[in-house]
Specification:
By secondary structure, this protein is α+β, with helices and mostly antiparallel strands. It has a single domain, classed as Alpha-D-Glucose-1,6-Bisphosphate, Chain A, domain 4. It contains 4 helices and 7 strands. A hairpin with a 2-residue loop joins β3 and β4. It is globular, with a radius of gyration of 21 Å. The termini are far apart.
Length: about 180
């Protein structure tokens, strides 16, 4: 499986670089991550619980950073075993570039799976990988960059409520009496 993408993060390149090398930030961003421990400046071990279609597994693996070019990018490689569910291995080249007041992060991912995971079919694996990548980058962007400020509204808040809220409010009032 190959996947490429880019994300704009509302933070400086040095801040994004620091976060990409911060084990605590990565642990919070990686979907299903239970543990992520730094063994050296370039090596980590991880455990994550994931579900791909009907297959649920806990993966134990190793992660290695290489081709470090601070604060411009690196290559991240990893492999993990999920027991009878199979294995996953792959890597990504991550590049950072200034983009106005933020940072443009581009990535190229290559991954391979085996065992029961490989029997699920390419489309399910690809869609799950895309979903996991989207979850990672959404969390990463939220943690690293400030959330964009909502435009200030000068109009007064509407007193109109949605039907669900009205029904819920009526039931709450009845339950309280």
């Amino acid at each position: 499986m190959d996947m490429t993408g880019e994300r704009r993060i509302a933070a400086s390149r040095t801040k994004v670089w620091a976060a990409l090398n911060d084990v605590d930030v990565l642990k919070r961003c990686i979907p299903g991550c239970e543990t992520l421990e730094k063994q050296s400046d370039t090596d980590m071990v991880a455990r994550a619980k994931l579900q791909v279609g009907p297959v649920k597994a806990t993966f134990n693996g190793k992660v290695k950073l290489s081709d470090l070019d601070p604060p411009n990018g690196y290559k991240i490689s990893g492999e993990g075993s999920g027991g009878v569910a199979g294995y996953a291995k792959g890597g990504a080249v991550v590049r950072l570039a200034d983009d106005g007041t933020g940072t443009l992060m581009t990535y190229e991912v290559r991954a391979d799976v085996g065992g029961k995971l490989a029997q699920l079919g390419g489309r399910l694996i690809d869609s799950t990988a895309k979903k996991l990548a989207d979850e990672f980058f959404a969390k990463f962007s939220t943690i690293v960059g400030p959330s964009p400020a909502a435009p200030a509204s000068t109009a007064p808040a509407s007193s109109k409520q949605g039907w669900f809220r009205r029904v819920f409010r009526k039931k709450s009032k009845r339950a309280a009496s």
